[in-house]
Amino acid sequence: MLKDANCIVFKVGTSTIMYPTKKTNIRVIDFLAQVLCDLANSGKRVVLVTSGAIGVGVEKLSLEKRPRDTAGKQAAATVGQCALMYLYDKMFAQYGRSVGQLLMTKDDVDHANRRQNLINAFQRLFDFGVIPIVNENDAVAVEEIVYGDNDSLSAVVATLVEADALVILTETDGLYDANPATHPEAKRIPVVEKVTDEIRALAGGTETGLGTGGMATKVHAAEIAAESGIPTYILNGADPKLIYSLIDGKDVGTHFLAGKDSL
User: Fold this and answer.
1) Are the CB atoms for 202 and 177 separated by under 8 Å?
2) Quick check: 231 and 166 in contact, CB under 8 A?
3) Per-residue b/e over 31-50, b at no fewer than 16 CB within 10 Å?
């Protein structure tokens, strides 16, 4: 299915692009840029939704830990966003692609005119051969205008650009029938036909080592995307080249069906 996809939205989390040492994982970002540029060269429209601004800001400011107060998080995000986009711009440029930054809040999507402006901007970026890179606008976001996690944001972006698929890159190989960290016998679930209470329970909580999301937010993102008929794939982001395996139809990650296939 993905081999014939015209437009794919990819989401990468903080814990995927940063080491537990709170330092940037250059290798993963480089491989990710290489794969996404290659997909764009093949004719696909590619969008990257990225987390990591606050995490990179913490690194850049040499802070001992992530700020807990809103102003501190916003300040770290402004510094980190600059550094993160500089890194993406450099990495994608070496593979012949330009990137464009879009910082969004929930208010931008809920407001009809702003929503249309976003759609128009994405379209023109595609026309220019640019890969859009999206993040939540942490510097101005307050409780009532935030998505709270970039998993949900990525599903909304997939809807805005009428994507054929959403691929969420994370720390695990997909959704398991038990927590693989505490149950070595846990098995990966290759296909989820429909998100049920049982599936939500398997997803567990929302905590990760560095980011604000977890498997629960990814399953919720799959629900949002499914409402627009967009299938979601959860894939291990430690090796971005697994994206090729996914596109080739190999059994990797977890595929959440959407539309008539999920009924």
Assistant:
1) yes
2) yes
3) bbbbbbbbbbeeebbbbbbb
Contact call for residues 14 and 81 (beta carbons, < 8 A): no
d(CA 181, CA 175): 12
Residue 168 and residue 82 in contact, taking contact as beta carbons nearer than 8 Å: no
Report the distance separating Cα 109 and Cα 148, nearest Å.
14
| Radius of gyration of the CA atoms of the chain, in A | 17
Distance between CA atoms of residues 206 and 149, nearest Å: 10
Q: Which pTM does this prediction carry?
A: 0.92
**What is d(CA 83, CA 89) in angstroms, rounded to the nearest whole number?**
10
Per-residue pLDDT of 205-242, as tens digits, reads 534 433 344 789 999 999 999 999 999 999 999 999 99
d(CA 166, CA 76): 28
Alpha carbon of residue 7 to chain centroid: 15
- Over residues 106-133, the pLDDT tens digits come to 889 999 999 999 999 999 999 999 999 9
**Cα 81-213-57 angle, rounded to 5 deg:** 25
Q: Which residues pair with 166 in a beta bridge?
A: 9, 232
Q: Which residues contact 92 (CB under 8 A, 6 or more apart)?
A: 33, 36, 37, 98, 99, 131
